[in-house]
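Friendly challenge for the regulars: who can give me the structure tokens for this chain first? No prize, just bragging rights.
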Amino acid sequence: MPVTADVRGDARIIEAPAWTRMTRTDDLLGDLLRQVSRSFYLSLAILPRPLREPIGLAYLLARAADTVADTRLIARAARIGHLQALRRAYAGSSAVADVARACAPHQTLAAERRLLERVDDVLTAVGRLPSADQARVRGVLTTITDGMLFDLERFPGEDAQGLAAVDSLDDLDRYTYLVAGCVGEFWTDLHLAHRSRLAGWDAAAMRATGVRFGKALQMTNVLRDVPSDLAQGRCYLPARELAALGVKPADLLTPDGAARARPLLSQLLGLALAHYDAAWRYTLAIPRREWRMRLACVWPLLIGQATLEALAAHPNPFAAAPVKISRATVRGILATSTLTIASNRALSSTAARRRSRIASHLTAPDLATRHHHD
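First reply, four minutes later:
Bragging rights claimed.
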């Protein structure tokens, strides 16, 4: 399941297999999306066009909003205003030319500048979608931009000197829903509307499980990005849980504070792992003949779990550069899963092995303490 949660992810693009690539003649869903979508493109590229269009267009608009939210050369209050203007435009009630003029010149990446300059074109393409798909796209974008506004308003600083944290696990859960869990609902509703082989699904149950799929990927992003987020004044590790360990958000910037926060990391890794369990139930419920949908779900799951394992095994992922898995690992995941995509047994076995390795790190003696004594 491609999820907009990964818009702040690894900037490297892993080349998709040749048979998955979108046509180069498709301007918005071809070159532009490929330039800004990063790993998201891998999953999106294999979907049938009736699904690729609404999902891809929604991604582009979410990515544009995220670019505006992260344009630190613009004052925070102005960014909030621009994001609210985009939110209204995405709902179909205003234009976006002023936002593009204000924000595009400040982009250091040409692809992001071009994306902001093309937002009107993307909205025009949304307007050509069937009315039901238009409503789904506009609905999910309203929720995602709510999450971005929550982010800007919750974290008033721009660097580690102004560091702030979310208050509670409930706040973290709400955030992961707003920016990613809602995409699981959107994805499920679109597939139910367009793929007759899913007629036997319990829509409500699968939508709820799809929410957990999105949360799994976003929790992985949150835990992977702790070092870079701390440097930008954001701490998604809840303040209440840190306080119970005698840790303040600023303490995470020190080796001792990061080591004392290790139990919370293990707790959050365990929560992410439980979301991955739900995501695998979702994926294995997809009919085998819907192999495109299965691959689009399997790839981010396997890549996400590999990242989660690297985090669980790291002696101090809070103080290090963000943990990333190698291109070779990603290519291996793409190749192996493509061969086994029709086999629930093979996929379940792969997921179970990875889960077991992650869980073993969560129950092992404290890694930071072991590293200190080695």
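The beta strands are 164-165, 234-235. The chain is about 65% helix and 0% strand. Your move, everyone else.
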